[in-house]
């Protein structure tokens, strides 16, 4: 309705992720210094106001700008929620609280897709933003009088330079990951983004090692449970976002589902996560944290490997079972990994610890979509072969790069007597791309399990 170009549509999605990931660590530190309750409330107000403005935008650029502000609001909210749980709940109840948080955090992506699809079916496009407003108002009403504030009792000064290095470095990294599949991995802008990210993040580490009051002391990564748990969260979200990315396209372009139906098709992930995650701490107490995380990663790998065997004609129930198996594994591994991160940092750095957990999620998800998505696209192009030769030359480039575009172009311009054969080729090629992408994801999950089994060292959580 706003006449957005393809590039603007992409940045409506990416502006939020870019700003959110880049500002998490500084906003977590802000909560530690000035109070996590107040940063949470500020973030809710900021997010809600930006959501209202986004829903009333009259141009794509306004939507992009408001999405960026929503990213700042979310960066204030997310670390505050987890750090408040850590400081408010007694040690015995803390793992259960973190598990519930992790379950809903992991399920949020699938729930968001479905709820957005339902809203777009019945309301105007801005409803996907405005729907958060009554939820935020309710949260403000409940949090303000009930939740106790907590902060760093020593009132250490903010690490302004460290915040700048981390923010700019993560901006550059996420930007390069977003643009890589679009521009090509050898594009100067993409390569420059990665180089800049390396320089800035290296500068961040160097500064933090020297700073009197570091925002995030790199020596924390000498603690095995912290380092391994951080890698595990990155690993799990890499595989999860890769799965969402390829399966939703599979359901739409291969199985011919509507966007809403494709969102519903991945709901087994959300429901399984919500059910399994709260039970993870009980299993960890019985068989150990390390074994619980390893078991979860093996289940994720098994589910991802199951997607290797899917074909265009495979019944949906098989897809649902593999997706649920991946969710079961994530539901076991995420709570214990998150709790391991939070128990590794001092209580006065709970906001930064929470921000590390959230940042690894965002970086893992970005890598999953960019790298695993690129693998799927490469295999798709390989298996297409010369099938697109029946299309007009001017349209082959788009069809070669994107299966959704290929299906639309084929239906619009392919010869009638060759249409079904061409559609079968496109669907088969995309499915093979998904198969290989998820097999790579399974290997990555297994490598994560091996790392956890070898190097994780637990303390009671």
Write out the CATH superfamily name of the largest domain. MFS general substrate transporter like domains
* Gyration radius over CA: 22 Å
> Which quaternary structure do these chains form?
single chain
Count of separate structural domains = 2
Low-confidence parts lasting 5 or more residues at pLDDT below 50?
none
How helical, in percent, are the residues?
over 70%
Q: How many β strands by DSSP?
A: 0
What is the CATH first-level class name of the largest domain?
A: Mainly Alpha
The fold-level CATH name of the largest domain is: Growth Hormone, Chain: A
Number of helices: 18
Query: What would the average pLDDT be, to the nearest integer?
Result: 86
How far apart, in Å, are the first and last alpha carbons?
A: 51 Å
CATH A-level architecture of the largest domain? Up-down Bundle
Largest sheet: none
Instruction: Encode the helix/strand succession as letters.
Output: HHHHHHHHHHHHHHHHHH
- How much strand? under 5%
Backbone shape: globular
Derived structural class: mainly alpha
Which helices and strands, and how do they pair?
Layout: H1 6-34, H2 36-55, H3 60-88, H4 94-122, H5 127-130, H6 132-146, H7 160-183, H8 188-210, H9 224-254, H10 259-265, H11 267-276, H12 280-287, H13 289-306, H14 316-344, H15 350-384, H16 393-401, H17 403-413, H18 419-455
Highlighted features:
mainly alpha; Growth Hormone, Chain: A; 2 domains; globular
Describe this structure in words.
- The protein has 461 residues and is mostly helical.
- It folds into 2 domains: 6-158 and 215-380 and 432-455, Growth Hormone, Chain: A, CATH 1.20.1250.20; 159-214.
- The protein is 80% helix and 0% strand.
- It has helices at 6-34, 36-55, 60-88, 94-122, 127-130, 132-146, 160-183, 188-210, 224-254, 259-265, 267-276, 280-287, 289-306, 316-344, 350-384, 393-401, 403-413, 419-455.
- The model has no long low-confidence stretch (mean pLDDT 86).
């Amino acid at each position: 309705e706003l006449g957005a170009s393809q590039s603007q549509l992409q940045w409506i999605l990416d502006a939020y992720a870019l700003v959110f990931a880049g500002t998490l660590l500084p906003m977590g530190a802000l909560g530690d210094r000035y109070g996590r309750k107040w940063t949470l409330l500020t973030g809710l107000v900021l997010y809600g106001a930006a959501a209202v403005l986004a829903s009333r935008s009259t141009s794509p650029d306004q939507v992009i700008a408001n999405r960026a502000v929503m990213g700042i609001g979310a960066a204030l909210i997310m670390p505050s929620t987890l750090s408040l749980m850590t400081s408010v709940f007694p040690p015995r109840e803390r793992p259960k609280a973190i598990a519930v948080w992790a379950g809903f955090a992991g399920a949020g992506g699938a729930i968001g897709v479905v709820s957005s699809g339902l809203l777009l079916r019945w309301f105007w496009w801005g409803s996907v933003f405005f729907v958060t407003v009554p939820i935020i108002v309710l949260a403000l009403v409940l949090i303000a009088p009930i939740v106790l504030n907590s902060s760093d009792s020593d009132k250490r000064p903010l690490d302004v330079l460290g915040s700048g290095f981390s923010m700019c470095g993560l901006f550059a990294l996420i930007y390069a990951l977003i643009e890589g599949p679009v521009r090509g991995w050898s594009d100067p802008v993409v390569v420059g983004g990665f180089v800049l990210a390396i320089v800035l993040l290296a500068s961040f580490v160097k500064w933090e090692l020297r700073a009197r009051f570091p925002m995030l002391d790199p020596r924390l990564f000498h603690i095995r449970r912290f380092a391994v748990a951080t890698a595990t969260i990155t690993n799990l979200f890499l595989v999860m976002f890769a799965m969402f990315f390829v399966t939703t396209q599979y359901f739409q372009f291969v199985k011919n589902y509507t966007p809403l139906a494709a969102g519903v098709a991945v709901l087994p992930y959300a429901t399984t996560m919500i059910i399994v995650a709260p039970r993870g701490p009980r299993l960890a107490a019985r068989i150990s944290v390390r074994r619980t995380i390893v078991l979860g990663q093996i289940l994720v790998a098994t589910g991802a490997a199951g997607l290797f065997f899917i074909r265009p004609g495979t019944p949906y129930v098989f897809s649902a079972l593999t997706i649920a198996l991946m969710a079961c594994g994530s539901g076991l591994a995420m709570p214990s990994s998150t709790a391991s991160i939070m128990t590794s940092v001092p209580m006065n750095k709970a906001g930064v610890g929470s921000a590390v957990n959230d940042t690894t999620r965002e970086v893992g998800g970005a890598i999953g979509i960019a790298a695993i998505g690129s693998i799927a696209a490469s295999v798709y192009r390989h298996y297409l072969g010369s099938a697109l030769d029946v299309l007009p030359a001017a349209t082959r480039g788009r069809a070669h790069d994107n299966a959704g575009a290929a299906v639309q172009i084929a239906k619009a311009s392919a010869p009638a007597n060759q249409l079904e054969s061409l559609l079968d080729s496109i669907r088969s090629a995309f499915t093979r791309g998904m198969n290989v992408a998820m097999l790579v994801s399974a290997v990555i999950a297994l490598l994560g399990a091996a790392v956890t089994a070898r190097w994780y060292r637990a303390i009671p959580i």
